[in-house]
């Protein structure tokens, strides 16, 4: 039986994949306690009981480990949004409200409460790691999808160029999506989402 | 001839007022070079050639000096906005565009370019000093004034409660008004104001 070749050259087999996951899980634990910025790969190797050289067999750098953690975390937010907005029979307006609400509650939880991933997410956002670029692009696609659907259903206005509408909404959501901005918005996560949602939805009225 | 008594107890006469200004000017210079956070009143006293005790005759704390600098800086932004929007014969839409544009260009200049006041402004915003609260309230009053005028002229919709509209707009402008958010938005100050302005103005359409 022919097996398809594995997509990434750095993953050489199921065992390697397990070890990668093991390193990521241990690093996640370690970073959330000691911070990402201050930890070196040597610290990490010592803490999880692997040699530094062994870790470098699986990851090119500390950032590569951070990236893996970040990608996981941001993928969780995306999955939560996907689930919240994909329910059948919702209006585009309701889908948009769910998008915003889920983005904020999941983001606040992951970055600041449960797992204190803020430290890594902030590095990712400020240094524009691929994980945060992929995340931003994904959020923008959600916005595009909802705006397009709302326009097709006659729920939203169609005069403004679609690109401009999507860019402007994506920008208006940035304070709640980007962890660097979100950290200064934690006092606002109760009321602000509704106010911002309502303003955006008024701007979409036909 | 009876002289009215001076309003603030800490300002005891024109000479004292001059000395206060002199301290503020010197502190401003010193902070912009060495940062507000790291400087102590002793450092400051040494740098400007006054005794620490003498400085404490005029200011209760380092924060009081920082506040004086911050108030001046934020008053400059407010004055610039006032001038930009008070021109006769403008539509409410045009006044709103000018409000946003002036807020951003003056803020970016004062906080980040010319005088590097970001350090102090960030303390003021994150610790909610009176100067930044007064500033926020003033910006909100500008928004209220323009929205109210636009409603009276029939330029803007009147269905949404005035309070909600003003709060939501004030919030949407926060990333460009609050220096803590603005620092992460410097890459966006070219295009974002127009996009955000257009979105807000669409939300105000009757």
Please write out the topology.
The structure is a homodimer of 206-residue chains.
Chain A: H1 14-34, H2 41-48, H3 52-58, H4 62-85, H5 92-112, H6 118-126, H7 130-152, H8 162-177, H9 179-182, H10 192-203
Helix pairs in contact in A: 1-4, 4-5, 4-7, 5-7, 5-10, 7-8
Secondary-structure element pattern of chain A, one letter each? HHHHHHHHHH
CATH class of the largest domain in chain A: Mainly Alpha
Please give the share of residues in helix of chain A.
over 70%
Q: For the CA atoms, what is the radius of gyration of chain A?
A: 20 Å
Give the termini separation of chain A. 57 Å
Question: Quick one: CATH superfamily of the largest domain in chain A?
Answer: Tetracycline Repressor, domain 2
CATH topology of the largest domain in chain A: Tetracycline Repressor, domain 2
The profile of the biggest β sheet of chain A is: none
The most extensive contact between chains is:
A-B, 28 and 28 residues
Quick check: average pLDDT of chain A? Answer: 86
Oligomer state equals homodimer
Low-confidence stretches of chain A: 1-9
Approximately what portion of the residues of chain A adopt beta-strand conformation? under 5%
Instruction: Choose one word for the global shape of chain A.
Output: elongated
Instruction: Output the number of helix runs of chain A.
Output: 10
Number of domains of chain A: 2
Which structural class is indicated by helix and strand composition of chain A?
mainly alpha
Describe the structure.
Two copies of one chain form a homodimer. By secondary structure, chain A is an all-alpha fold. Chain A contains ten helices and no strands. In chain A, helix 1 (14-34) crosses helix 4, helix 5 (92-112) packs antiparallel against helix 7 (130-152) and helix 5 packs antiparallel against helix 10. Residues 1-9 of chain A have low confidence and may be disordered. Chain A binds chain B through residues 126, 157, 160, 164-165, 167-169, 171-172, 174-175, 178, 180-181, 184-185, 188, 192, 195-196, 198-200, 202-205, and chain B through 126, 157, 160, 164-165, 167-169, 171-172, 174-175, 178, 180-181, 184-185, 188, 192, 195-196, 198-200, 202-205. Chains A, B: Residues 40-59 bind DNA. Chains A, B: This is TetR/AcrR family transcriptional regulator. Chains A, B: Residues 17-77 form the HTH tetR-type domain. Chains A, B: Keywords: DNA-binding, Transcription, Transcription regulation.
């Amino acid at each position: 039986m022919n097996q398809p070749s594995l997509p990434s050259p750095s993953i050489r087999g199921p065992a390697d994949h397990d070890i990668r996951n093991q390193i990521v899980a241990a690093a996640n634990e370690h970073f959330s306690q000691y911070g990402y910025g201050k930890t070196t790969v040597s610290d990490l190797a010592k803490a999880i009981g692997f040699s530094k050289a062994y870790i470098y067999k699986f990851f090119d750098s500390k950032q590569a480990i951070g990236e893996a953690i970040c990608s996981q975390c941001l993928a969780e937010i995306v999955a939560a949004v996907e689930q919240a907005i994909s329910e059948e029979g919702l209006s585009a307006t309701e889908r948009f409200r769910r998008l915003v609400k889920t983005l904020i509650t999941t983001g606040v939880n992951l970055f600041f409460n449960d797992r204190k991933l803020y430290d890594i997410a902030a590095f990712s956002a400020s240094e524009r790691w691929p994980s945060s670029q992929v995340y931003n692009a994904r959020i923008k696609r959600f916005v595009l999808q909802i705006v397009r659907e709302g326009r097709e259903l006659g729920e939203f206005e169609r005069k403004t160029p679609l690109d401009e509408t999507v860019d402007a909404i994506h920008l208006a959501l940035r304070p709640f999506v980007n962890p660097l901005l979100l950290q200064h918005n934690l006092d606002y996560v109760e009321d602000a989402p509704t106010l911002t949602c309502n303003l955006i939805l008024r701007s979409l009225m036909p």
